[in-house]
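Q:
Just now I want nothing more than another pair of eyes on a protein record. Here is the record:
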Amino acid sequence: MTFEAVLDSLRRMAKGSTHSHTGVWISAQLRQRIAAGELAPGTKLSEEALGDALGVSRNTLREAFTALNAEHIITRIPNRGVFVARPSAADVREIYRVRRFIEPAAVLWQEPAPLDELRVIVAAAQLASSSGDVNGMAAANQEFHRALVARAASERLDLLMEQVLAEMRLVFHSMGSDPAFHEPYVADNAHVIELMATGDNAAAAEFVRRYLDRAEAQLLEAMTD
C-alpha cells in the first residue's frame, strides 16, 4: 500500500473519530498500519500531507512521531524528514531479547482459556501456505504471537507486544517473499497448540524459546547476505 492510500484511509477514519486530533490516536493508527505491512521501511511520512489529511497541527504530529521514534518504528533524519525505520542487526537482537522474555513467560503463566482462537489463526496460515501466499503466512504468524501474549491477560503486555510486532513487520521485509522462511513456523505454531492442549505449558514455553532463537538466527543471516 502506498503512503497516499494510507493517507486516504486515515482521512476517512479521522472523520468518524473524536480522538483524531490527538498525538496518541495518530501514533496508534500509524503503528497499526506499519504492523499490518501497509507502510514499508524507508517510506517518508510527510508532516504536511499527514497534517492536511488529519486536520492537525505540526506539534500534534511531532508528539506522535516522538512516541513512534521511542519505539524504533520511525526515524528522524536531519534536514530530510521522518521515515519508517529500517531495523538493523542490533535492532533484531534487541527485539528477540524482548520477545524471549515476554512470549515464553506468557505461555507458561497464561490464564486458562480455550485454544480456539489460536487454532483458527493456524488454519489461516495453513491455507496461506497451501496457496503460496507469503504475506498471508507472515500476517498469520504475527497474529499467532499476538494471541499468545494476549493469553497472559495483561493490557500492558498487549501494548508492548503491539509495539514489538510493528517493529517485527519491518524486519520481515528483509526476508522478501521467501516462503522458505515462513512455512516451517506454520507447523511450529501448530505444535505449540498441541503442547498447550496437553496442559504442558512448560514444554510449550521452552519450545517457543527455541523457536525464537532459530528465527533470530535466520533473520540475522539474511541481513548479512
Q: What stands out?
A: Strands lie at 74-77, 81-84.
